[in-house]
């Protein structure tokens, strides 16, 4: 067992005081950098070293593979390359199994491989909520993406939820008809406010329009990035909290 897995098996400590509990996940220091210690939901990507904040995690989004066309062997087609933590029992209240997709042209064998991996996580006793697809769909391709997600939703066992990452301009520039096709298919959209390892400078101009999607959404932050919570999020009936992408110093 690696050091990250060993840390994740430690039961989260009880936090003293109701105020501190309320601050976790929902509050963000105004005009400051993203301090992961203020949150309790995290993306855990391959290669990220152990951090103390993982001991307080209630929700984890754990990368388990990259889906892409083989560059070295194009004839082999689309492959799922396993990454991230080995299958083990995790104590968090919610665990999402994440797949980073670079293509939507999935062969039948890939679906079987993916679902088998998710079921192995579930069999350990880990509280698997479902899967998350991390795919950078442009606004003009949302209709095609929605069609892919409908098919994936039908393949998932009913007790699993479906989460996706999203781009901030979906609320501003996406065709409302294309967005509406995601309703009843995905359970949440986690909107990324960063690119690479830095916050997108003009994120504040996009966030007030996210309610136009009419979908439950969370806001994805980058650890150490710039962040000031807009009032629009506090007032939104669709906002469900934050997810912090952990990174090495």
Order of helices and strands: HHEEEEEHEHEHHEEEEEHE
Strand order of the largest sheet: 2-3-5-6-7-8-11-13
Q: Give the % helix.
A: 10-25%
Decide which structural class fits the backbone.
alpha/beta
Overall average residue pLDDT: 87
The amount of beta strand, in percent, is: 25-35%
Structurally, the number of domains stands at 1
Write down the Rg: 18 Å
Helical stretch count?
A: 7
How does CATH name the architecture? Alpha-Beta Barrel
- Could you tell me the CATH topology label: TIM Barrel
Question: CATH first level: which class?
Answer: Alpha Beta
Q: Which word captures the global form?
A: globular
Query: What separation lies between the terminal Cα atoms?
Result: 23 Å
Biggest sheet descriptor: 8 strands, parallel, barrel
> How many DSSP-defined strands?
13
Low-confidence stretches: 1-30
Pfam families: DUF3142
Signal peptide: 1-32
Protein name: DUF3142 domain-containing protein
Keywords: Signal
Relevant terms:
globular; disordered N terminus; two-stranded antiparallel sheet; TIM Barrel; eight-stranded parallel beta barrel; 13 strands; alpha/beta; 249 residues; 27% strand; 22% helix
Protein described:
It is globular, with a radius of gyration of 18 Å. 22% of the residues lie in helices and 27% in strands. It is built from seven helices and 13 strands. The N terminus is likely disordered. The strands form three sheets. It has an eight-stranded parallel barrel with strand order 2-3-5-6-7-8-11-13. The longest helix has 16 residues. The two termini are 23 Å apart. The chain is an alpha/beta fold and 249 residues long. The protein has one domain: TIM Barrel (Alpha-Beta Barrel), CATH 3.20.20.
